[in-house]
Here is the input.
Amino acid sequence: MSESGRVRENREMLVSAQERGGLSILAAYTRLSGPGWLQSAITLGGGSLTGALFLGVLGGTSMLWLQLIAIVMGVIMLSAISYVTLSTGKRPFQAINEYINPVLGCGWLLATSAANMIWCMPQFSLSYDALDKNLTGGLGGSLNSKLATSAVLFFAALILVLLNERRGLASKLFDLFLKALVGMIVVCFFGVVVYLTLNQGLQWQTILAGFVPNLNQWNEPTGRVVELLQQTPESLRAFWSGSIVAQQRDVMIGAAATAVGINMTFLLPYSMLARGWDKPFRGLARFDLSTGMAIPYLIVTSCVVIAAAFSFHGKVDDAFLSNDPEVMQTSNIFGGAQGVLTTRIQKQLGSEALSSVSAAERAAWLGTLSEKDQALPTEVLDARYESALALSQWGKLSETERVARMAQLPEAEKRLAGTLVKRDAFQLAQSLAPLLGERWAKLIFGLGVLGMGFSSIIILMLINGYVFRELAPPRYEKLAHLLGCVVAGLCGALWPMIWKGESQFWLAILTSTFGAMLLPIAYITFFFMMNSRELLGDEKPRGLSLIVWNVLMACSVAGALVAAGSAMSQKMKDEVAGPTIIGITVFFGLMVLVGFAARSRRSESET
Here is the structure.
């Protein structure tokens, strides 16, 4: 049967089922679902895995609510753009430019492309980390090895992208292979939760309580960390609490942003149009998003959070807790914790030194500052002086003395430091150990992460190709599509030139903050589209239906704006990124206003 004939048959099946109602609709929806599962393939990628893992490490099961709220918001807005697309049959980019605001249309398209290129980086880094730590004897970790491995992944992905265009047998087989890898790790994490429930007595009352939203977690530590903080000296609680909350915010933003990214808002309507879906398929689209994307995402990420919480939250190995410096350094998290432990020791040294300096010594230090700095508030000057004293005292200690001081820290503080460690693929694989044992956990986790990362690279390259195709004249569409795929892949493959942190997994969290900044562009645009009589005509929701749509969409837009504002405020502290973000935001806002003004004048002239 031809493609058009199959679409016609599906449409007739839906109309017939809707006339009969009841289970007939459910049966038809189940049989015809599709694009939602494609969205799930992106959502259940390296970003969502990373976000869920670090949520469990930092907050235990107390932040399970975050991904629930994020995916519900995403489904609402994706349902809105699917309603508009299927009601009008118009390609969203042209519809936005013609009926809403060309600045929002171009902003949505460019933000999608930027998200594709930015998000490709953590997928390459996750794939490298899985190969380096889990699947090989070690790739060396040098810049050249990272670039060489990334180049191989890039060319392999590009070949598969080209095969995908031809829809050949090789493309289908590899697609099934990647799905099998992702499915394997999904089943394993689900199995871990079942195993822990049966053998370790998971406290499901506490786990279920984690689905209740708690906005205080934005400013306060959560989970077992609260108990550990109570065991530290009062003078140090602010230090540990501030360190944990700062990282907690990054993880919360990252986990929320990976539920539904702006590139997913682009893929969905175009994938539906490519299938020939139209007005009768609107109910199927909502069903598809709920069952094919939201439910699998929520089950998988919740299982990952629970497994990570059991394995890592508030826990460290015995070596790290040792008071013997030599033994402590053998811990596999010592390297990751060394930075925060150094800061903790320096703070103590600075505080001790500050209490013993004379007024004359402080006055002499103050005289070395500029007049502008001398006019700063007393508390700021005290903090600077304490920091200077801390660095001075730290410099007098040998490396052996430094590690010895770290080893003598109380157990509660060592556990807090362990919570802040940015763990790599080898360490995170331990979350599967209760079910599989360490050897198989390492292998299965590595294969699953590689499958998730590599499949996400392919899909992100494809989406970017479609973005470039949308911007190009018809005769250059194929060339533009190839160029878009190559640009996204190359940006991702160059991640070693940009990221030099200790854990490739953490890159996914950082890039998620950029994704959170871009998402409101899509959500606000879709809100305007659902309320446009000119675009939707008689299909525009009315009465109670319109009120429900607007309330749900307004909540989603507000949530996206809060996440974006939080992500931006985190970046404002950077002297370079801060002014750049402010400039881009103000410029884009002004251009949106100009776009609406021009649109209004054009509408008046047409009438």
Summary: The radius of gyration is 26 Å.
